[in-house]
Specification:
single chain; 86 residues
Length: 86
């Protein structure tokens, strides 16, 4: 009985199980190792940079809003009190 091309590629990729182990157990361990390698290669620095960017943006908006409010209040003080006394 001939093996299909897919089965040959699958056997080549997974190799042969160790003696005394079932094929399914070997496949599950291999898939777990593959998943662990994929997880270790993930780069989460980009998400952290985006989060820091959002925080800096929110702080900048708060500072601009605060300065605008203080500027408006000071403008009223200078126009009403100081300009009236000159």
């Amino acid at each position: 009985m001939k093996k299909s091309q897919l089965r040959i590629a699958f056997d080549h990729f997974l190799g042969q199980p160790e003696p005394g182990k079932h094929r399914m157990e070997y496949i599950m361990k291999t898939l777990t190792r593959i998943q662990a390698r994929i997880n270790s290669m993930r780069n989460e620095d980009g998400a952290t940079a985006v989060e820091y960017g959002l925080i800096v943006t929110l702080i900048a908006i708060a500072i601009i809003g605060g300065i605008t409010a203080v500027g408006t209040a000071l403008d009223g003080v200078f126009r009403n009190d100081i300009a009236g006394n000159l």
